[in-house]
Amino acid sequence: MNILAIDTSNRPMSVALYHNETPLIEHTLNSKRNHSVQLMPAIDYIMKEVNIQPKDLSKIIVANGPGSYTGLRIGVTTAKTLAWTLNIPLVTVSSLELVAANLIYSSGLICSFFDARRGNVFTGLYRAQEGRLTEELPDQNIAMEEWLDRLNDFGEPITMVSPTEHTFSDMVYEILGKRAKWVTGHLSFPQAGQLVLLGKDREPVDIHTTSPQYHRLVEAEVKWLEKNAQNK
């Protein structure tokens, strides 16, 4: 079974090809270029490198949020289009779970998060144990200070992992103190190969109805709600 994995949730973009659980190739970029320009050439590149044709693919796994609105839309739409065209299953995995999975062979609580601006974060809490992740608190969009207060209630060491850790590091140490541990470097970035390990045995989604999990209203929806609230 040849599996294509795609993540465009945030600034880093990662794609990978696996044969069953064996990695064939993984390609990750961390630049400001638009994923709409990068994604298809990256997929074409890795497939040519390992001599796999689109018809040879058996499944596609994509990170479906939360994260960048534009990035998610590009990645999920591309994955849906390929899966529909090739008539193969599509599986989705949380983008936050994907980052937490870099620490799947550690032990204890893992908080993965992305900056959602205005003091908010996209975040979730997971527990790593014996090479598996279990969800302790679901993915959500929440004020970082409120989230850290909730984490503090666990009374346990928590490993924080994020591509944007510097934005909230002072607040984390102020509230969690020495119980907060940071993971930085390559382990703080999404790796598409982890999508395969997380999603290979999960049930496929409906290609036509599945959509990114934004966990927030887009700007146009916010403005519409504000305008209608003022008119009431």
- Whole-Å distance between the termini? 56 Å
Beta-strand content:
25-35%
The top-level CATH class of the largest domain is: Alpha Beta
> Structural class of the helix and strand makeup?
alpha/beta
Tally of structural domains: 2
**pLDDT < 50 stretches:** 218-226
Number of helices: 7
**Arithmetic mean of pLDDT:** 91
Number of strands: 10
Shape: globular
Q: Could you give a short account of the major beta sheet?
A: 5 strands, mixed
Helix-residue proportion = 25-40%
The CATH architecture of the largest domain comes to 2-Layer Sandwich
Order of helices and strands: EEEHEHEHEEEHEHEHH
How would you write the strand order of the largest sheet?
3-2-1-4-5
Rg over CA atoms, rounded to whole Å, is 18 Å
- The CATH homologous superfamily of the largest domain is named ATPase, nucleotide binding domain
CATH topology of the largest domain: Nucleotidyltransferase, domain 5
Keywords: Transferase
Pfam families: TsaD
GO cellular component, one term: cytosol
GO molecular function, one term: transferase activity
Overview of the molecule:
By secondary structure, the protein is of the alpha/beta class. It folds into two domains: 2-94 and 190-221, ATPase, nucleotide binding domain (Nucleotidyltransferase, domain 5); 96-188, Nucleotidyltransferase, domain 5, CATH 3.30.420. It is 33% helix and 31% strand. The chain contains seven helices and ten strands. It has helices at residues 35-49, 69-86, 95-100, 144-152, 169-176, 192-199, 219-231, and strands spanning 2-7, 12-19, 22-30, 59-63, 90-93, 108-117, 120-129, 132-143, 158-161, 180-183. The strands form two sheets. The chain has a five-stranded mixed sheet with strand order 3-2-1-4-5, sandwiched between helices. Helix 1 (35-49) packs across helix 2 (69-86) and helix 4 (144-152) runs parallel beside helix 5. The longest helix is centred in the middle third of the chain and has 18 residues, at 69-86. The radius of gyration is 18 Å and the shape is globular. It starts with a strand and ends with a helix. The model is unreliable at 218-226 (pLDDT under 50).
